[in-house]
Specification:
six-stranded mixed sheet; single chain; alpha+beta; DUF6497; Diaminopimelate Epimerase, Chain A, domain 1; Acetolactate synthase
Length: 164
């Protein structure tokens, strides 16, 4: 079951669309001038899922929200962001490492994100799958949070991994 998100818009002023290689930086990051995300649309019925989604690692993962945005200078380059809660990736208390979670993100792209877009007649130049150990507003920084991101280029029914 998918229920409406409490977020009505994605505020992305100076918020990176995804963490750059090596992790997010506190200042001068990609989101402030290089590829700032401009909200394109918030999917009308997207966001919080009531039940955990099955992933290869077996960790509990739930859909937090789905956002569409468009980067400046790239007309027609819509990015679909699927944000998931995955508490077991937490530093210190978690049991799932990035190496274990990477196949989960691949799986979520191919089995959830692409069908989700296809069912709604939407296309995206990139699909970003993010896992977070806690709920965070889009673009927010929290040094205590653990987040993993991967970007994919949809290619038919497949997700092709894209390096940042």
């Amino acid at each position: 079951m998918i229920r409406s998100s409490r977020y009505q818009t994605a505020r992305a002023t100076c918020a990176a669309p995804a963490a750059p290689a090596g992790g997010a930086r506190e200042t001068g990051g990609r989101g402030c001038g290089y590829l700032a995300a401009i909200p394109f649309a918030l999917l009308a019925q997207a966001a919080l899922a009531a039940d955990a989604i099955a992933v290869p690692s077996g960790q509990p993962v739930t859909l937090a929200e789905v956002l569409l945005d468009q980067a400046p200078g790239q007309p027609g380059q819509t990015w679909a962001r699927f944000r998931f809660l995955a508490p077991q990736i937490a530093r210190g208390t978690g049991t799932v490492s990035y190496d274990t979670a990477a196949p989960d993100m691949d799986h979520l792209c191919g089995t959830l994100a692409l069908p989700y877009l296809a069912d709604r007649g939407m296309t995206a130049a990139r699909v970003v799958i993010s896992l977070s150990d806690r709920e965070l507003p889009f673009g927010a920084q929290d040094p205590e949070a653990t987040q993993f991101f991967e970007a994919y280029r949809p290619d038919g029914a497949a997700c092709m991994w894209e390096a940042f």
